[in-house]
């Protein structure tokens, strides 16, 4: 670098150039500043003398990288710290914001990593006070330093492990955090009457950082909107109890606009989450709660004047209830209910604040507050208005419904006399009615095309809201259920009347009717999901009344003209709602125990519909599932949910036993071709495997060979047809599609075998009659990965010994016979795969088949159902041929590609571990180049970030090194020729194996400063203390015991 001007020009190119080549050149040229610690003085020189802001940013970023990635000497870190703080004091007011932010981050990072190294690092708060005693620009810098310091202490740093991180964070919490929070409060008080928004924003941000601190080291999920109980230390008690603490945030909310008002509400949310035990008495806790309640009450009561909007904006707002007007989400003025709540950010945080009232406080405490009656009335009105604004407030309603749900569930636990009526019986029914009516209002918000934005399609958000519904509804179940039935009955009646028409007109009214029914069915399902026992038989009777309406609806859904509507979005929504209802009903009322405990449910269902027990209800469910699988091919979501429900029902032991009593199930398990289920016409669908897994699970539950063979007859017919197909016809698309579907189906059946007996059913059915077909497919379709991939996945499932299902009788040759067939398939596929040319999609055409082949071989070798010594004893090359072809396929892939494709890497390293643990004889007989390739690939695998791969590589190397140690170093001489060759192979890669410990030791010591090297020699001596030259378990344990001591001493000062 000739001069500073040239460096500044390079920095300008690095951050501003549109030419990627220029940026790469600049990055490569400037990289030395962030990699070479000897250039740290040059970075400080650049900070002192450069005029370009980008040069300053580069120097600051380079210093940050040095501090983060290197263990710099203490004096050098002190120098960086002092230089940064002096530089900010002298020039910070004139720096670009991104430069000052980078320097502040550098200052806070070096403070954190050196927190325990010198007292001066713990004086940063005191040094920041010097900024707060100066003009506006320096005042803002001081607040930013404290803000960044709290943030830095609250997040993980690469330089520190988890234990060190918690020690630093805990020390900072005890020594500085409360002081910083008090500084933020003082700044807020001082800036309250000041119009400088920059300082107000910085002070509010600092407060929020302090209140968001991880006080107890639980590492909360930052992606979640939920705030748990904040475990502030006892030393914070006086500050939190001080009335002005809450009042200052309410004042800032009233005085400012978003985003400042939103930040003020966030601070209030966290204060409302402070642990109850912080308050020493009930009186102080109630005083704090009173301040919170009165503050939120003022917000709800006080309206804010709004600027007049032009006609176009008003029209947009009235149409959509929301608009991105002037870059700010604004609520329709008809729905404005409180100060600043027409801004979406404020509104959402305010909903979160209301939700915290019942999370952290008891209902008796809320009721005891003077003014509770008017407050709960305002909250009720606010909730109703929010429900009406379904599109604008959909993500926030969850918090409000959670508040009401928690209040009604805690009402039975309120003991003693309460000073005021709770009034929940007055408001909860209105909220339920408001929720239902608002769902219907959403359907009238626009034309039919807008139904694609229905809240029903936001599954997770809808389920979150409906989770609270059963608690609210069962609070006054009689009146609430009457309202629901009054709403639902006309819809069901209208839908049943429409089923009588042969040619129903597909109008928007029908789509709206189906969507309304979908909402009501979802609501009924949500109510049934939570079964209430306190209400006794009366609750079951009401549950039966609601369920009967849904079953009536199900009876007509697929009749008449409705059978042609599976492609309509509204019909698909209704189908999903019915499936959700089935799932809830099954969990609450299906099963022997549930039936005996729910007699009134089935008594009432018998009176209404003739469904007198759970078998009849199950039959209704299965018939609906079968209808969906037959007819609903247009919706992948409906198919997926149908199969998921079917799988859950078949997977439960008791439910599966009940299903087998149904004639519908008997029909399905024997008639499962594409003529019966249209979705099977899609040969490439993954749902085929799931469907046949369910079929297999049910069939194997009967434990009958005859029943199994009867159920497999449709697949047998396909197998026989394909076996008789001439080879030239195998290449036709029709045959390929049939092969793809067959392999997916057989894989599903194989997955369902979970015992030795059931696997025997499948194996005896396949071998020897149908196994030649698999080889025929490989020989004719090896260049068609869409065919070979399902086949290889089926074989991989077939050879997997899960639950010891492949444990054959001692006299049975089935294990050997199975492996011989697998070996033939691998050799046939591998030889053809090697001949394939590398085209554009090399992974799909070659690599995918290779890693599946490696997976098959690995599973077969570790299954423990084959005595591989038999092959060598009788001269059978099945194992050797399979290993040879696997090795050839591995060598056909460039080493870089193995590491680049994760599935290839996992399969390869798994096989290497298996070979070196189970069949190391194969490895020691390899030629020198191949052996070196494998060893170096294992060495490369250790450097990957995938923990599973690194574990496999470490295990493989351990097997190889242990064999070398036991057979070569400690073995008896003379060694066999094979061992002699193996020893020569190891010596050829001495950089990997021989003297590795000495090499690693010297590298670690050389990388440390001179003043630490002598002590590190002593650390390594500690590591090897009492470790002998053997591989017995006691010696290994001793080394592992020494390792923590070595790590601790190594990291000490």
TrEMBL record:
This is Importin N-terminal domain-containing protein. One of its GO terms (molecular function) is nuclear export signal receptor activity. It is found in: Cytoplasm; Nucleus. It comes from Carnegiea gigantea. It holds the Pfam family IBN_N. Belongs to the exportin family. Residues 448-685 form the Exportin-7/Ran-binding protein 17 TPR repeats domain. GO terms for biological process: protein export from nucleus. Its main location: cytoplasm. Keywords: Cytoplasm, Nucleus, Protein transport, Transport. Residues 26-89 form the Importin N-terminal domain. GO terms for cellular component: cytoplasm; nuclear pore. InterPro entries: ARM-like, ARM-type_fold, Importin-beta_N, TPR_XPO7/RBP17, XPO4/7-like.
